[in-house]
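Quick one:
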Amino acid sequence: MTDAPQHSADSAPVERLHPFFLLTGLGGSLRGIAGGYAGIGYLAATGRLEVAILGAIGLLVATAVGIFIYWRRFSFRIGADEVRIDSGIISRTHRSIPFDRVQDVDITQGPVSRLLGLAKVKFETGAAAGSEEGVLPAITLARAEALREHVRARRGLQVTRAEAQQAEPQPLFAMDLKRVLTAGVFNFSLAIFAGLIGITQTFGEVLGFDPFEREFWERALQQAGPVADYVETHRFGAAVAGLLTLILLGLLTGIVRTLLSDFRFRLDRTGTGLRRRRGLLTLTDVTIPLRRVQAALIHSGPVRDAFGWRELKLQSLAADESEKGDHVVAPLASDAELTPILNEVGWQAPAAELPLERFDRAYVWSLLVLLVPLALVGLVQVIILPLAGLIFLLAVAGTGLFRWLAWRRSGFLLEGERLLVRTGWWRRRTSLLPLRNIQSIDLNEHFLGRRFGIASLTIGVAGGRGFSSHGVPALPRERARTLRDELLSRFL
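Output:
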């Protein structure tokens, strides 16, 4: 910080990103050009190794030059009342952000940045999710912390040194290692297979490796010798072993992903909102302004419900880069732990048992009508391909069953100045929508719904992933209209 800060950033000293940005920025750019790697791999696999090497060198040089030019053309100035960021190579952008518009300053450190002592700084202005805000991609951690103190001081939120040296108060919510690992178990994920599909689709022909093709396994079994004979003899055992392996990989993937993102999760109350810190390799320090929170989403499922666990998200106008405005403030918490968090936002936690108005039964019947043709296709497949047809029929039946189970526990409740909507069975969600935050209400009638005399409401709330919508499906047509009129009369 300068000894005599300028009130106008235009006259403040020019600062640049740390030179190590040339390393961190290069790594990020190289991760985004997978298509170039595919081309280089294809050239190498087809015997044109020299051309592949030249292409790799050219790609690296072009990326490095682009990063260098971006670094040279990026500068910022810190005045007493505003920050100005100048960026762009061909088209220049000069962005001025008054500090009285900044809710807080978020600091993020990836694994490489931690080794180099750098941090990424984002000026949280509470702009609409998806809009571009002020970001300094790579400055020293000490400079980032000093900058945050400077902004907070201008907003009257400065913490004295004596207060900073005192032990931190009890967090609003925190997760120890045991809780994080437990959350990982509930976050069962097969994302590793989605990644494998992407890799094989991109590099499969080049590498001659595609486990999603039947020919791949036929060749593997031919080369396996005694193992192939054992699999052929014990097909049921091999299928069970494969299923168990699939479950184990899903559990491990969920645990690893959760450990990386939510390690040392901590949520605190600050002067402007909720401060969330978490991460194992990439450390994030984000503040969610309370006045920007638009809705609350409580997620669960049949397994989580059996253990009394919930996940709480706050839908906010303030956009986190990875979450686009849907901020996880309690990845795995009990109802008792959710209550103080919602109280800080000024909202009351929903009761365990709510007198919900249930959706019309057509919510189930309209889907079953659409599933009948698919069931007939499945019956034909059973005759031609018994196993594939049976699997298809089970999938169709499961879809209908899940819709019926969802209908049994779904509904809505207009309670005071908020609307509660509960949906889903496997992926259960309870939405808390303050009426004052509703932006729009659409009444929808699709062709099949008209036959059943039902309509649905789509309620728009700003923030979240874009302009986020919450639905009240399958209400009798007249009830949907009266509910829409009642909601409109409340927030207009």
